[in-house]
Structures are given as structure tokens and as C-alpha cells.
Design a protein that fits this description.
By secondary structure, this protein is an alpha+beta fold. It contains seven helices and six strands; from the N terminus they run αααβαββαβαββα. The strands form two sheets. It has a four-stranded mixed sheet.
Amino acid sequence: MKDAESRRYGVAFNAIILTEQPFLAPANDLEKAMVALARTPSKESERAFETVLLTSKVYLPTTREGVAKTKADPTQVTFLRLPIETGRPHAMVVFTSPARLRQSLHNETEWPWIALSGRQALATGAGYPIVVNYGLRPPVYIEPEQISRLLAQSPAP
């Protein structure tokens, strides 16, 4: 998604995926919690997802410069933001594995990424909506208010 045409195609492609693609086959605990939340939405499944998200490793797409910058200073994380709805701020995107990142971003194998704990990713993207597994099914949308609540409930280790 390196130019405007590619981004427009990506948004249209993701809209089709979200309506036609079956749920992914969970490959880790975070994906299992996401699918459980999508299939049986409840306060319990939401809390289970949040608990797993905070401790799981997630993957943020970035640039080569972003990877180098983060290696030099772990507090300087740069991340990709993509549109979720017209008129809304772009969301920070995170993925449950490098394979899911490539699957969502047109199987581009050269896309650089950074691995963080879910808690670190939420803190990094505070102020932005966050989408876990953008363009895949099921995605999970997390609003800035939810992020603030989660971070307040689970102080940094």
C-alpha cells in the first residue's frame, strides 16, 4: 500500500473480504479469543480477549526506517495507520502474527514490522482507534476510550 491507488484498492478489497471471507482458523491464543468474541459476543468473551491481548505478542507494520528507529530507541515506535470509515480518524493496525500481516497486506513479503506486547502496542497507539487483524475476519476494533480503560486497569509491569 505504497501509493494512493494501492490504498484505495486495499480498502475496497478489505470491504469484500469482511463480507465474504470466512473466519480465520485460529493459530494462537489471541486469534482463538478473537474468534470466540466474534462468535459469542459477551462481557466474558470481551474480558477474555482483552486479557489475552495485553499479554500476547502483536506485530505492527512500519517502514525500514521505523524498524531502525525502534531498535535505536524502543520508545520511538512508528506505525501504519489505515482508514476504517469515512470521516473517522485512521486506525493503528496490529496483527496477531507476521503471517496474518502478510495475508492482510496483499501477501507482500517485504513489509517491515515490529513485534511488541499487546499492552505496549495499546500504549503506543493511545489516542487512535486500533484494529487487530485489519482486513481479515474477524477483525477487532478498539476505540481510544477502551484503550485508556484497559491501560488504566492493567498498569505496566
